[in-house]
Write the structure tokens for this entry.
Amino acid sequence: MSVSVKCLQIIVSVLCFLMMILGIILLVLGIMAYNVYHTEVNANVSSISYMVVGSFIVAVAIFGLVGAICKNYCLLIIYSKLYEDGYKRAIETYHTEKNSKEFVDHAQKNFQCCGYVDYTEWAASFFDFKHGVLPMSCCVEGAKVCNINHNFHDVHKKRVCEYE
């Protein structure tokens, strides 16, 4: 096995393990909140939401972790598909949910990309895509505006999951 494949296997395993810990923490917090505030309706909904999100994160992390450790192609495809769906959902809720905006902006800045596949995925969001407007995280640092009609050369063209 080449060094780069082994390195990638270790990185994916560590990230999935950390993601699994985060999911377990959310799950435990949800259970604790439910046990303490189970009579209040709003707290009940929040605690159940924490449990559902935590369980989903743990499940996705297990697919990725087992897939990476065992080099199981099928599990890695499932992990990748779940991650892609989550990323696309975050793009759709970019303007309505603060966490989605922070997650997408962070990923696009760090990976120097725009969307999971490309910038056209922003048509699904409430962004003013019909006029070519994209989030600033889609463009190179220092760009004054991020618009495919005016400064397309500044828009990141790389997929979010690609590494150099």
